[in-house]
Structures are given as structure tokens and as C-alpha cells.
From TrEMBL:
PANTHER family: DEHYDROGENASE/REDUCTASE SDR FAMILY MEMBER 11, DEHYDROGENASE_REDUCTASE SDR FAMILY MEMBER 11. The lineage of its organism: Bacteria, Pseudomonadati, Bacteroidota, Cytophagia, Cytophagales. Belongs to the short-chain dehydrogenases/reductases (SDR) family. Keywords: Oxidoreductase. InterPro entries: NAD(P)-bd_dom_sf, SDR_fam. It comes from Hymenobacter nitidus. This is SDR family oxidoreductase.
Amino acid sequence: MNDLTDKVAIVTGASRGIGRAVSLLLAMQGAKVVSVARSADELDELVHKTNGLAIPADVSDETDVQNVVDETIRHYGQVDILVCNAGVGSFNLLENNAADEWDRMFDVNVKGTFLFCKFLAPHFKSRKSGHIVGITSDVARRTFEHGTVYGASKFAQDALLGSLRKEVRPHGVKVSTIYPGLVDTYFNESKPGSPDTEKTHLKPVDVAQAVRYILEAPAHVVIDELMLHPLTQEW
């Protein structure tokens, strides 16, 4: 089993939901966690529990992302793990989606993943180690009504991670993709903890445990892809 003690992990979308659960769980395993999100207030509350770094940033802004990577390396000397979790979504008929909704989803879901991987891939390759975990969605592998724009962004994110996996594998760098189904979070302005979703959805910690499982795999093992659904959700 790969020990996560003192591993330096950047987690995006860390202020709520899955990202928060991942940050807390990795910190519990001894990792040095750098939590990234736009909300400085929520990050400040989180960093007291992770005892790591909190860096407010827009994942779609190249300068912000470069700053996160530079500040992490300046503070800790290296990065071992990147968890690309930041994501947004809304669901509508194609013709009812505004162009700025397309931009918003592709900026966060695809460009955010691209930018962090762009700046960290050379670092990982030079060290002959590193692990990128992309948290996408099961809709990266299926289509559904009202999901044209969100689904397109997740298909694109999945393709990016899949291609990157082939690029960095010869350098000893791992890329893993998690495809969660329904999760009880604040996603799409939902409020977690309702009687219905508590019984039918995954919890953020369920996805966090999947991240831990992937990261703790032995050095010679890479878990390329992991699909995760609540028992009540039909694929």
C-alpha cells in the first residue's frame, strides 16, 4: 500500500462537497493538503481542520493556477498529488442554454483541469512520479436529456485525462479518472441532506474514499478508471 504521509496534494473545488471531503480525508492520512477554491471564507474554515494551505483561486484563470502551483512548490518543495475536482453544471434543453453557460461549464470543468495538468505535468515528469486524479461524472460515458452542455464538458474532460494518461505513463506518472453518479452535494445549487437525496445519493465521503483507494494503490499499480454509483441509481 502506498503511504500518503507527507505527500503534498493539491485539491481543487475544496470548499464544499466532494473536494472538502477529499481534503479532510487526505489530511487524516497524513498528507499535506493545499485546498483550492474561489471562496476564501470557506477555505479558511477548512484549513483549520486540514492544517495545510488554503489558496483562493479561479481554476479557469491561468495566472491563478500558476500561482497555486508556484506557491505550493515554494512552501512544500514539491507536489505529489493533484485532485481535479472543481466542477459546475446546469441542465436545460440545448436551445435554452445561453452561450455564457457553455463558457462557464467548459471553463471550470475542462479548462480548469487542463491548466492544472499543464503546469504540473512537467513537474511530475521531471520527478518521475506523481498522481493526477480527475473527478468527472458518469455522464462522461453516457448522454441524457437536458445534459447537452454539461455532458459535452464532461466528455471533453474525460478525453483530456485519457490522452494525458498515455503521455505521462512512460515517465512514471499516474492518471486516474473517477466517474461518480448521483452525489448528495451543493452541485447545481442543490442543498444536501434532504430526506430524498440522503437515501438515494452517494455521500461526498464515498467519493473521497475512492480517491484514497486509488492513491494508496502500490507503486506498480495504476487504477485507470473507477465508476461509482449509489445502489439505487440505474446505470
